[in-house]
């Protein structure tokens, strides 16, 4: 399955066009390698996504062509989720 489609179906990113933009800007890695939106994703793959100040790392558990909202979270397991802290305001 294509990376952009997986991200949409699993509801990690709401729209496939947004998933494509994020991948094409070099903000997604699959198994430690920079990934394009067309990169093939398999069960067991590790995906790391940089969202602005948040980094999400997941493991692919299932591949489905479509899914209900309740079942979307069963497609992946969150390995880590980190948030970069902003700068503190100086007085």
UniProtKB/TrEMBL annotation:
<dbReference type="InterPro" id="IPR036986">
    <property type="entry name" value="S4_RNA-bd_sf"/>
</dbReference>
<keyword id="KW-0820">tRNA-binding</keyword>
<protein>
    <recommendedName>
        <fullName>RQC P-site tRNA stabilizing factor</fullName>
    </recommendedName>
</protein>
<keyword id="KW-0699">rRNA-binding</keyword>
<feature type="domain" description="RNA-binding S4">
    <location>
        <begin position="1"/>
        <end position="64"/>
    </location>
</feature>
<keyword id="KW-0694">RNA-binding</keyword>
<keyword id="KW-0648">Protein biosynthesis</keyword>
<comment type="function">
    <text>Key component of the ribosome quality control system (RQC), a ribosome-associated complex that mediates the extraction of incompletely synthesized nascent chains from stalled ribosomes and their subsequent degradation. RqcH recruits Ala-charged tRNA, and with RqcP directs the elongation of stalled nascent chains on 50S ribosomal subunits, leading to non-templated C-terminal alanine extensions (Ala tail). The Ala tail promotes nascent chain degradation. RqcP is associated with the translocation-like movement of the peptidyl-tRNA from the A-site into the P-site.</text>
</comment>
<comment type="similarity">
    <text>Belongs to the RqcP family.</text>
</comment>
<comment type="subunit">
    <text>Associates with stalled 50S ribosomal subunits. Binds to RqcH, 23S rRNA and the P-site tRNA. Does not require RqcH for association with 50S subunits.</text>
</comment>
<dbReference type="InterPro" id="IPR002942">
    <property type="entry name" value="S4_RNA-bd"/>
</dbReference>
<dbReference type="InterPro" id="IPR025490">
    <property type="entry name" value="RqcP"/>
</dbReference>
<dbReference type="Pfam" id="PF01479">
    <property type="entry name" value="S4"/>
</dbReference>
């Amino acid at each position: 399955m294509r990376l952009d489609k997986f991200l949409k179906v699993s509801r990690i990113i709401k729209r496939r066009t947004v998933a494509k933009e994020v991948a094409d800007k070099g903000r997604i890695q699959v198994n430690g390698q920079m990934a394009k939106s067309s990169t093939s994703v398999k069960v067991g793959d590790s995906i790391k996504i940089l969202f602005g100040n948040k980094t999400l790392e997941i493991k692919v558990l299932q591949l489905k062509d479509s899914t209900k909202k309740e079942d979307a979270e069963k497609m992946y397991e969150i390995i880590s989720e980190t948030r970069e802290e902003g700068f503190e305001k100086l007085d």
